[in-house]
Write a structure and sequence with these properties.
Strands 1, 2, 3, 4, 5 and 6 form a six-stranded mixed beta sheet that branches. The longest helix is centred in the last third of the chain and has 22 residues. It is built from seven helices and six strands, in the order E-E-H-E-H-H-E-H-E-H-E-H-H. Helix 3 runs parallel beside helix 4. The chain starts with a strand and ends with a helix. By secondary structure, it is an alpha/beta fold.
């Protein structure tokens, strides 16, 4: 189940954006990159990349099951990380769920990317160790960035790749999808 045809004739593909902490400008850069790719590449081909996710950390605590379902129903997952996994490390659990879904062929998840924001003053050994662990994973694409503008440019390239792969595969709701 990869995409679904909406009443407006577009095949839609969910992109879950996970951005804990005070990364609102970075989260907005993700939305901007998706909108840019939708306008230039996806929408002319009747494909729509739809961003989903949380607007603030507190939403995850009270609605964890619903949020987890949204991850499960997504085709792509973007994890932004600097130095905080949110309340009770719940964003980390969402990230691990996304990787699990990507590795399960029966799930719609097709790719997980990690965007590591530079943290030059970080001294917490646990945070530094986890950043290193993320960078050393061979099953993920990890992008480093310093500013929301850098993130926007990197994610526009990733989303462009996703949109082109969808278009070139000819996958649509009739061929295997439902949102």
């Amino acid at each position: 189940m990869l995409g679904s045809t909406m009443p407006h004739g577009f095949d839609s593909y969910r992109i879950f954006i996970s951005a804990p902490g005070d990364l609102e400008p970075d989260r907005q850069a993700c939305h901007d990159a998706i909108a840019q790719v939708n306008e230039a590449t996806a929408m002319p081909a009747k494909v729509l990349l739809v961003s989903v996710g949380l607007r603030d950390n507190e939403q995850i605590s009270g609605t964890r099951a619903i949020v987890s379902d949204n991850v499960r129903w997504s085709t792509y997952f973007i994890q932004i990380f600097q130095d905080d996994w949110g309340p009770r490390d719940l964003f980390r659990k969402l990230f691990l769920l996304a990787v699990e879904c990507r590795d399960d062929a029966s799930m719609p998840m097709r790719d997980v990317v990690v965007c590591l924001k530079d943290a030059p003053h970080e001294a917490n050994p646990e945070i530094l160790g986890f950043r290193r662990e993320l960078e050393e994973r061979s099953d993920l694409r990890v992008f480093r960035y310093g500013s929301p503008d850098e993130l926007r440019a990197q994610l526009a390239a990733v989303c462009e790749e996703w949109a082109r792969a969808i278009i070139e595969s000819g996958v649509n709701a009739d061929a295997g999808g439902g949102e």
